Amino acid sequence: MIDVQGLRKSFGSNEVLKGISTSIKKGEVIAVIGPSGSGKSTFLRCLNLLETHDEGSILVEGKDINDMELHLRKKIGMVFQHFNLFPHLTVLENVTFAPQQVLKISKSEAEREALDLLKTVGLSDKANSYPSNLSGGQKQRVAIARALAMKPEVMLFDEPTSALDPEMVKEVLQVMKNLVKLGMTMVIVTHEMGFAKEVADRVLFMDDGKLVEDQEPAIFFENPSTDRAKAFLEKVL
Amino acid sequence: MNLDFAQLVPSIPYILYGIWVTLQFVAVSLVLGFIWGTVLSLFKIGKIKILRWFADAYTSVFRGTPLILQMLLIYYAVPQLTGVDIGAFSAGVLTFALNSAAYISEIIRAGINAVDKGQKEAAMALGVPYRTMMLKIILPQAFKNILPALMNEFITLTKESAIVSVIGALDIMRRAQIVGASNYRFFEPLLLAGLVYYLLVMMLTLAGRVMERRLAKSD
Ligand SMILES: Nc1ncnc2c1ncn2[C@@H]1O[C@H](COP(=O)(O)OP(=O)(O)OP(=O)(O)O)[C@@H](O)[C@H]1O
Ligand SMILES: [Mg+2]
């Protein structure tokens, strides 16, 4: 569904992505791991045009993403490390905003769907709260509901649990596991190795702007083929 | 001390009517200045070079020359160039709107830049078009940040509006001067005018606090 070929990206003279090629099939769950600064976020952000790449190509269902900006973003949902909820809107308004503004769904319809989504992430009772009154874990679950409200075909997660207190990590991972069960195509940048091992179909290991390994988790975690991956795993496990 | 307010009493309604004139003046200038200032601030943060350049040059000129000069230029230049006599009140409003827009655009630009980058990214990732994102996500948050600075600008505007008396608009200030001249006593009417301005400013300050508290409800 997504084909990445020879992706390169620089910030000034700093080359951050040095030729990434991979493909993501429908229904696949991909974990992206690697040391800080290796380009994981940049890679993810290129996939929904939050960054524009310099060289190479990204095709979504055969079409170049540079030619499908708005349409692309309706297909791809994103969840950020720092939630980025809209602080001046209630939880319900956060979730209904884009469906109303972008998909032009009526308010009542959007609210009905939003309440369903809030129920699936366990936050029905918070619909009328403002984000500032929620815990980190609750905020991230709202952010997931907000992205899902656009009915995306792919969900991108950039370290969704890194900004959370340890006791809240589980509730967010649980919501993500439910998504996996529903067959959602997901690309997840994460430092939660246990989670990656459990849910991912493939692990992409990035280091210094390169895709160093692209492997099934069982093989990657037990028996990584490169020294760099070995060194990284020794540090984090 | 030789104060005689008794002589002022018959003229008090005349001076107080100036409140209405001043308020009208400030309100219209303020609304126009705010709208134009918002547009300028969007030029400043936008991608179109020529608009950015224009907004920066505009701000620089209006901040770099005296307000009273701008007002006299507009008051005398508009009829001279177009043949249309726009009157003191309109010339004053035009000047104040154009001038305060320069200041307001800087305030709003700073306010927009202070909104967390993640807000824009979240909106973009949801496919929200630029216009909607600005109007419904970024500006409401920016507005909250800048409310104190904006209120300050409005207060300045109220006080500075007294210079329209120079071109003969019948505001509080002008009326106090007229009464002073006809009674040969300036101190009392000017004191009254001062009190009125002070009360107006206090009211604006209070209104600002109430608005801030309202907007803070999401914290
Ligand atoms: N907008 C930007 N402007 C300039 N440099 C950037 C920008 N975004 C990222 N970089 C640089 O690109 C490199 C890769 O950053 P990226 O955020 O993709 O890494 P990461 O793998 O996600 O790291 P982390 O695990 O810390 O999130 C870093 O050196 C970073 O400083
Ligand atoms: Mg990152």
Fold and architecture overview:
The complex is a heterodimer of chains A (237) and B (219). Chain A has helices spanning 40-47, 69-75, 91-101, 107-120, 136-148, 166-181, 193-199, 217-222, 227-236, and strands at residues 2-11, 14-24, 29-33, 55-60, 63-64, 76-79, 154-158, 185-189, 202-207, 210-215. With 237 residues, chain A is of the alpha/beta class. Chain B is mainly alpha-helical. Helix content of chain B is 80%, strand content 0%. Chain B is built from 8 helices and no strands. Chain B starts with 11 loop residues before the first helix and ends with a helix. The A-B interface holds A 48-50, 70, 73-74, 76-78, 80, 82-89, 97-98, 101-102, 130-132, 143, 146-147, 150 and B 116, 118-119, 121-129, 132, 136-137, 140-141, 144, 217-219. Bound molecules: adenosine-5'-triphosphate (ATP) and magnesium ion.
Topology of helices and strands:
The complex is a heterodimer of chains A (237) and B (219).
Chain A: E1 2-11, E2 14-24, E3 29-33, H1 40-47, E4 55-60, E5 63-64, H2 69-75, E6 76-79, H3 91-101, H4 107-120, H5 136-148, E7 154-158, H6 166-181, E8 185-189, H7 193-199, E9 202-207, E10 210-215, H8 217-222, H9 227-236
Parallel strand pairs in A: 3-8, 3-9, 6-7, 7-8
Antiparallel strand pairs in A: 1-2, 1-4, 4-5, 9-10
Helix pairs in contact in A: 3-4, 3-5, 4-5, 5-6
Chain B: H1 12-45, H2 49-64, H3 67-82, H4 87-114, H5 117-125, H6 130-160, H7 172-183, H8 187-215
Helix pairs in contact in B: 1-2, 1-4, 1-7, 1-8, 2-4, 3-4, 4-6, 5-6, 6-8, 7-8
The complex binds adenosine-5'-triphosphate and magnesium ion.
Residues 40-41, 158-159 of chain A line the site of magnesium ion.
InterPro entries (chain A): AAA+_ATPase (IPR003593), ABC_ATPase_HisP-typ (IPR030679), ABC_transporter-like_ATP-bd (IPR003439), ABC_transporter-like_CS (IPR017871), MetN_ABC_transporter-like (IPR050086), P-loop_NTPase (IPR027417)
Keywords (chain A): ATP-binding, Nucleotide-binding, Transport
Domain ABC transporter (chain A): 2-233
